[in-house]
Amino acid sequence: MTDIPSAISSVPSKLGTRLTLEDGQLVGHLSSPPEIAARGAVSIAAVAFLIDVVGGMTIDNDPTNWAFTSDLVIRLPLAPAPVSIETRAVILRNGARSAICEMPLTVSGEEWGSSLISFAKVPRREGDPVKPPFDAHAAVTRMPTEPLKETLRAAAGFVSRDRSQGIVAAELRTELLNPAGAMQGAVVAGLVEAAAEDLADEQLGGDRPYVVTEMEVRVLAQNRQSPIVSSARFVGIPADGLMRVDLFDNDGKGKLTAAAVVRVAPGP
Predict the structure, then answer these.
(1) What architecture (CATH level 2) is domain 12-266?
(2) What are the helix and strand counts (H, E) for the chain?
(3) Phi and psi for 240 in degrees, rounded to 5?
(4) What's the pTM value of the predicted model, to 2 decimals?
(5) Which of these, 33, 67, 89, 166, could form a disulfide with 101 (CB 3.0-4.6 Å)?
(6) pLDDT one-digit tens code per residue, 216-249
(7) Angle between the 185-204 and 44-59 helix axes, to the nearest 10 degrees?
(8) Cα separation values, 112 from 37, 103, 153, 210, 214, Å
């Protein structure tokens, strides 16, 4: 599967997601240990991994094509991290070139947050890694059982270069990549999240660190030329918490790889 990490050392696979099969359907369960949800709310990057994996594994069954995340929309309430968040894919479209899934986020059986994810289906190129075969039963046992003991920011080695501009850099280490050799989708979301947190903490201040409650990401190119660097700015009145965050490859001098709109708020 394109966005399923292939190595047990993968960082995003340790963000608290586990998988089960219920009546033949894949179900994702996300727990948020305090070390990962260090700001009190669930990390939106951890939610992105939950959605990416469950949606991707549901629609990606063609060994000749990669299924890359192209668009991701997440809406979360401003609330302490729940004990467990669950999701399963509701396929809205699954065509030859693209797919779209609705990913309801539930807590104790009640709808708690919402998400939509889109995938672009891209033929494997000459020289690409061999695409791993899909086995739903094996997939539920592949996730590491021990989550990270630190935030994604720390585990991924994100470096804050200029907090006032939301400039954060990430090297493309093996444990941050998907099987196709590009930055895994949750790491992309995590870099966007780190940039937004830095800018909000620096410019808005206050007694509580800021958290990201909404994220819309458009993936424009695969992140393959290291390091990947973010930039962020407020849109409108900063107190409203709306931001634009961009990612660029080649140490910030290369192409625009992702464009995101996020909203931040003081943590719960």
Answers:
(1) Beta Barrel (2.40)
(2) 4, 14
(3) -75, -15
(4) 0.93
(5) 89
(6) 999 999 999 999 999 999 999 999 999 999 999 9
(7) 160
(8) 17, 11, 25, 20, 13
